[in-house]
Prior knowledge:
The chain is of the alpha/beta class. It has helices at 4-12, 20-31, 46-57, 73-76, 110-113, 115-122, 157-160, 174-184, 199-209, 216-233, 249-265, 273-284, 292-296, 301-311, and strands at 35-40, 61-65, 77-82, 87-92, 99-103, 124-127, 130-133, 139-144, 163-169, 243-245, 289-290. The strands form 4 sheets. Strands 2-5-8-1-9 form a 5-stranded parallel β-sheet. It has a two-stranded antiparallel ribbon with strand order 3-4. The longest helix has 18 residues, at 216-233.
Amino acid sequence: MSNWAERIRNEVGKAVIGQETIVERMLVALLADGHVLLEGMPGLAKTLLIKSLGTALGLQFERIQFTPDLLPSDVVGTMVYQSNDGKFVPHRGPVFANMLLADEINRAPAKVQSALLEAMQEKQVTIGGESQRLPKPFFVMATQNPVEQEGTYPLPEAQRDRFLFKLIVDYPRREDEFEMMQRWGQVTRQPELDSISTGDELLDIREQVDQVHVSEEIQAYILKLVRATRQMASGDDPNERYLSYGASPRASLSLYQAGRALAWLRQIDHVTPSIIKEIFLDAMRHRVGLTYEAEAEEITADDALKIILDRTSLPPTPSAI
């Protein structure tokens, strides 16, 4: 199990060059049983990254291209009439997979986006009035384009809050982009990846992640950070009221679970303040709302969260407790 992450990274690296931090965060989400929202410009290999990760893990992979004419039944399935016996039977949609890629999720209307709510939170869907469990493990990996606003439907707060991370995919480094040209500039075939893990192995590793210690001091630190977002939203200082609303209690749980997963990947048996600080922006930027004044001053959610991070005092490290 100790080299599981390295094996996955190497296999994904056959198709995706660079983006090491994004790959690590996605592994954290898998270990923490969380969903991921990736945002970035077109052509940054967001879809390729998710598909490569599913292949390397040996998981059943399905992709849905979200469009304005998509229906909820196209996601979860519907009841189909069988003429031979006169009965309606459930026809399962693509959501019945281990890893579901919701490509350009903000291009579909709210009724389709909400069809994922039950699946993401309850790990089940309802077809024909009957609840059906989704396979284990189950993840939603969604992508969206930050620049195209025409014909898009922004995700509602309740939907965004169900993602463990919102990851910002940036342009590759110069050396990585140069290697892409060297490796694939003269060939048209796609890189072939092997399945080097299984869903059962992932579930077994989660039991190890559950053993990572989170001290009371670290738990208190997590609460201070999350509750500080609510204090900023309701603060008395109008010059620093950058947030219109703070993070929900689900944010505290996300930091707790993701912190354990990242500690396991780093081969540490306890969560440290530096680990919480490292994942704070990724776990929080989609859970807070900006005020009109902040947007007018071109202050981003990350900017407001960094202020909270800098002002929140660090607890003693677990090794010193």
